[in-house]
Design goal:
Layout (H helix, E strand, L loop, with lengths): L12 H23 L2 H17 L4 H8 L4
Helix pairs in contact: 1-2
Length: 70
Amino acid sequence: MIWRWGTSPQSDGAAVRLIMQRRNRQLYRVAQSVLNDDAEAEDVVQEAYVRAFTHPVTPSDQRDHFETSR
């Protein structure tokens, strides 16, 4: 993560822009290859950014998600 825990990604516009600049083309290509529709791929990528930046993952979310059964 580029921004510090406890800060909002919405308040760190530079970090959001950097993430989008670095990943936008790759995400679009994946979405377009799956959907075979340019407009739909753009919508999916935009929705992915909205979800990612409005519901950021916390360390406890990651731990809970990747915990394995014993």
